[in-house]
């Protein structure tokens, strides 16, 4: 039996080799080099060890092969060859089953997110149309099958790992905030000397939620880590970056509940002071707490602020001084102008937007659900809610630009203290896309000014 993703080669090129999928792991040049390095000297890719069906290979028809499971990967440049191997064996009467993982790459393991996912992914070559099939696919990274199985592949195909500058003036540590759910947050604080030379100096606290459309991301990924390092170092502040449950495995309001739990954990720490986590006891000013986030994380920050301001979430003895929304991921059944005709150069498309909502909202819900649309028909009236000051940041190339600016305008009409910042050349979720870019530099200045203003302090250069 040949192993999954076996390297079968021959001299002629086939479709996937020519049009190798975006994000593939194995490239044509790599495959060719492996063949040159491993085959007998002078042999080509039609050698019997490379091509099981070449002129020099033994016929497989008389061979008593046992049943075979062939595993193909949708982002593999050898995909057509692997499928062809299975088809040729079936054509000569061999017992063959094919497992086709559409979003996977050559040689990449799948992250198991369902105990039955292996069974569900198998599709017999008999042509059985009742086999589970993909009904929702987000860029090959998240797939929902017709039987409810959820498949996840490596999200690095969407955002390859990058090396960002290290910030040696900040220290960080992971802490469990929701043991029953296995959820952690990462606590950042400037080293005492970097915070002004006094170990007793108290700093504002930023509770930060990462982006990812409620379906992707983790608090410890490098780009989110860099965001929080910058915030902690340059504001300066104690930053708590919270992980939370993701859809479609955990649909909304799961993430919102986790966001509330993270801030409640901080409230519990304030009640324990001076017996709280040592860094918080030493450095956190619990009277200057800000709830912030980017994209879906900004939506969570809004939801937490509303829960607190309406009395649903008691955070005593914390004082929430403000909240910060960076290109918030809001929705609505009716398209805005920038959703209907996205700005030129934008990276976030209406199709991506729609799929993320379908994967994260409760089954059957529309984009007017309260978790998506803060002004939807079933959303709470925000006029009587005691909201703290808010800094809303919009990006000029974001399809959600109009929805974000409308959010700020609606709050302002209600008499809420609102600041709106617009970065015309920026993309949706620009802070995590380029944590050290020019737009991020401007953002840090704006957030620092907002935090100082809401804390009653003077601006500093």
TrEMBL record:
Q: Which GO terms describe its molecular function?
A: hydrolase activity
Signal peptide as annotated in the record: none
Which InterPro entries does the annotation name? AB_hydrolase_3, AB_hydrolase_fold, Carboxylest/Gibb_receptor
Q: Which Pfam families match?
A: Abhydrolase_3 (PF07859)
Q: Which domain of life is it from?
A: Eukaryota
Domain (Alpha/beta hydrolase fold-3) ranges = 24-107, 206-431
Record's protein name: Alpha/beta hydrolase fold-3 domain-containing protein
Source organism of the structure: Eleusine coracana subsp. coracana
């Amino acid at each position: 039996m040949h192993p999954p993703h076996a390297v079968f080669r021959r001299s002629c090129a086939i479709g996937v080799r020519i049009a190798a999928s975006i994000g593939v792991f194995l490239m044509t040049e790599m495959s060719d080099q492996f063949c040159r390095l491993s085959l007998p000297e002078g042999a080509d890719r039609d050698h019997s060890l490379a091509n099981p069906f070449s002129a020099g290979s033994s016929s497989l028809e008389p061979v008593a092969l046992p049943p075979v499971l062939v595993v193909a990967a949708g982002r593999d440049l050898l995909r057509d060859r692997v499928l062809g191997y299975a088809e040729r064996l079936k054509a000569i009467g061999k017992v063959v089953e094919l497992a086709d993982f559409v979003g996977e790459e050559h040689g990449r393991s799948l992250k198991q997110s369902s105990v039955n996912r292996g069974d569900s992914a198998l599709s017999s070559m008999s042509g059985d149309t009742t086999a589970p099939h993909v009904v929702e696919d987000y860029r090959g990274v998240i797939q929902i099958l017709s039987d409810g199985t959820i498949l996840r592949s490596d999200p690095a195909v969407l955002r390859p790992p990058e090396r960002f500058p290290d910030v040696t003036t900040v220290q960080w540590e992971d802490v469990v905030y929701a043991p029953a759910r296995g959820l952690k947050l990462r606590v950042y604080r400037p080293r005492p000397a970097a915070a002004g030379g006094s170990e007793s100096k108290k700093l504002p606290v930023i509770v930060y939620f990462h982006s990812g459309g409620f379906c992707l991301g983790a608090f410890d990924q490098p780009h989110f880590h860099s965001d929080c390092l910058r915030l902690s170092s340059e504001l300066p502040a104690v930053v708590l970056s919270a992980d939370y449950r993701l859809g479609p495995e955990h649909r909304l309001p799961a993430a919102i509940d986790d966001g509330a739990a993270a801030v409640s954990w901080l409230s519990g720490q304030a009640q324990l002071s001076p017996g709280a986590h040592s860094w918080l006891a030493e450095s956190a000013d619990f009277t200057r707490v800000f709830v912030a986030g980017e994209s879906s994380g900004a939506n969570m920050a809004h939801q937490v602020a509303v829960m607190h301001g309406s009395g649903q979430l008691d955070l005593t003895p914390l004082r929430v001084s403000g909240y910060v929304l960076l290109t918030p991921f809001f929705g609505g059944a009716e398209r805005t102008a920038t959703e209907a005709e996205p700005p030129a150069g934008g990276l976030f498309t209406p199709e991506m937007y729609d799929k993320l909502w379908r994967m994260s909202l409760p089954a059957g819900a529309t984009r007017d659900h309260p978790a998506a649309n803060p002004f939807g028909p079933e959303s709470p009236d925000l006029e009587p809610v005691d909201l703290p000051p808010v800094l809303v940041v919009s990006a000029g190339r974001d399809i959600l630009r109009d929805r974000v600016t409308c959010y700020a305008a609606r709050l302002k009409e209600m008499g809420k203290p609102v600041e709106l910042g617009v970065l015309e050349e920026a993309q949706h979720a620009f802070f995590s896309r380029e944590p050290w870019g020019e737009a991020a530099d401007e953002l840090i200045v704006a957030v620092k000014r907002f935090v100082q203003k809401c804390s009653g302090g003077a601006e500093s250069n």
